[in-house]
């Protein structure tokens, strides 16, 4: 079985920034900067490997 | 300076020493949180991300915290940049979404995510100078058939892996990718899963790239809305 190696940054960003459970509503503080990153990442991933 | 409670993940309320982040527990569930300055999340840039860019550093840290929990307990990773409005908000979230979050934790318990990318074998470039027209056409036909074969080979790899996984998800393809997928695999099935990847891609002469194990990032497609 392969050992875990340091994941490539794009694979990592795809998962950390782009996936995972989303929390919405009164409890969260909206961060405009983070929303922009999500949009940018989406474009980057479409460019690299399709809509992931 | 404005501060908030960064939330990394939902897990079960257990004693976890995370060297920094801490747990806010409520009825058996817990949010893994740390206090952050909101300024750190403005002006992040994605253009050609490098390991030392602020975004990469924050994302690596986020992943490290999620993994530290994941080593001990089932984890429901939250998306990067989830910042809560304080401890009361965290408890409200856990209280409002208790059943849903518990069900998701049960669903991912004892399972890890693996990424699999499959590409066609590399081929010699065609040298037209040394080739007759007929020979060229024959080679072209052979290659088209080979392309069909590797495509159906990649589909067969996915079918075989899907059967050895609890869940799977395929990403859209581009470039020379024949398969780009993530699989959520029970730990007791991992050996079999990886043996099958090696066997099939070896038999079919496909190039394969495996990433993982990951916490179940690609398998927690849930929105805790209006908590």
TrEMBL record, chain A:
<keyword id="KW-0304">Gas vesicle</keyword>
<protein>
    <submittedName>
        <fullName>Gas vesicle protein GvpA/GvpJ/GvpM family</fullName>
    </submittedName>
</protein>
<dbReference type="GO" id="GO:0031411">
    <property type="term" value="C:gas vesicle"/>
</dbReference>
<dbReference type="Pfam" id="PF00741">
    <property type="entry name" value="Gas_vesicle"/>
</dbReference>
<dbReference type="GO" id="GO:0012506">
    <property type="term" value="C:vesicle membrane"/>
</dbReference>
<dbReference type="InterPro" id="IPR000638">
    <property type="entry name" value="Gas-vesicle_GvpA-like"/>
</dbReference>
<dbReference type="GO" id="GO:0005198">
    <property type="term" value="F:structural molecule activity"/>
</dbReference>
TrEMBL record, chain B:
<protein>
    <submittedName>
        <fullName>Gas vesicle protein GvpL/GvpF</fullName>
    </submittedName>
</protein>
<dbReference type="Pfam" id="PF06386">
    <property type="entry name" value="GvpL_GvpF"/>
</dbReference>
<dbReference type="GO" id="GO:0031411">
    <property type="term" value="C:gas vesicle"/>
</dbReference>
<keyword id="KW-0304">Gas vesicle</keyword>
<dbReference type="InterPro" id="IPR009430">
    <property type="entry name" value="GvpL/GvpF"/>
</dbReference>
<dbReference type="GO" id="GO:0031412">
    <property type="term" value="P:gas vesicle organization"/>
</dbReference>
<comment type="similarity">
    <text>Belongs to the gas vesicle GvpF/GvpL family.</text>
</comment>
């Amino acid at each position: 079985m392969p050992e875990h190696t340091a994941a490539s940054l794009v694979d990592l960003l795809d998962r950390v920034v782009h996936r995972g459970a989303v929390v919405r509503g009164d409890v969260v503080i909206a961060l405009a900067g983070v929303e922009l990153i999500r949009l940018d990442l989406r474009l980057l991933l479409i460019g690299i490997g399709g809509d992931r | 300076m404005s501060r908030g409670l960064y939330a990394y993940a939902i897990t079960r309320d257990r004693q976890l020493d995370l060297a920094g982040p801490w747990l806010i527990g409520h009825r058996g569930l817990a949010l893994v949180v740390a206090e952050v300055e909101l300024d750190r999340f403005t002006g992040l840039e994605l253009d050609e991300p490098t390991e030392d860019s602020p975004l990469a550093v924050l994302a690596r840290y986020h992943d490290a915290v999620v993994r530290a929990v994941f080593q001990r307990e089932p984890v429901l990773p939250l998306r990067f940049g989830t910042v809560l409005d304080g401890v009361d908000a965290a408890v409200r979230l856990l209280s409002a979404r208790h059943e849903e979050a518990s069900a998701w934790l049960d669903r991912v318990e004892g399972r890890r995510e693996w990424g699999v990318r499959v590409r066609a074998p590399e081929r010699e470039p065609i040298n037209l100078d040394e080739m007759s027209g007929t020979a060229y056409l024959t080679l072209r036909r052979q290659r088209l058939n080979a392309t069909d074969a590797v495509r159906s080979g990649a589909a067969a790899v996915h079918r075989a892996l899907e059967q050895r996984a609890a869940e799977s998800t395929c990403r859209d393809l581009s470039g020379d990718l024949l398969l780009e997928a993530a699989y959520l695999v029970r730990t007791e099935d991992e050996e079999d899963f990886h043996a099958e990847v090696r066997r099939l891609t070896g038999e079919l002469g496909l190039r394969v790239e495996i990433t993982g194990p990951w916490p179940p990032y690609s398998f927690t497609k849930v929105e805790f809305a209006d908590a």
